[in-house]
Amino acid sequence: MSKQKTLSLTTHGQGLYEFTREAETWVSEQAVETGICHLFVRHTSCSLIIQENADPSAKTDLENWLNRLVPENDPLYTHTMEGPDDMPAHIKAILTNVSLSIPIVDGRLALGTWQGLYLWEHRHQSHRRSVILHLSS
């Protein structure tokens, strides 16, 4: 069996946007005891991560670290027509993930106690992002 859903997520600039609850709700509605849920983001300037969802300082530290690793306005960038955050956003997306696979155990995503699903927006402007959830059992 195979099922799909597209989640539409609105971002308001750079940052981590949690969507664990939306994904967990959809998976539980499918009444599948075991399987795998594959997630894929259809964009080149954002990414998907599994990260701690208890202490907000973890998100802040991740954002600060990645922004330091991939700075804006690097003179080596030639892809600059869409703004100083565009090329760094593409680099950040390849350093992180555009897809994730999570086992389904007992009808639920097999995430750990402190793990959450996040869309990581790498652009400054607001965007509407599409995340495809594909369930296989």
Automatic annotation (TrEMBL):
Pfam (any one): YjbQ
PROSITE patterns for this protein: UPF0047
Organism lineage: Bacteria, Pseudomonadati, Pseudomonadota, Gammaproteobacteria, Kangiellales
Organism of derivation: Kangiella japonica
InterPro entries: UPF0047_YjbQ-like (IPR001602), YjbQ-like_sf (IPR035917)
Domain of life: Bacteria
Family designation: Belongs to the UPF0047 family.
Protein name per Swiss-Prot or TrEMBL: Secondary thiamine-phosphate synthase enzyme YjbQ
Gene3D superfamilies, sorted: YjbQ-like
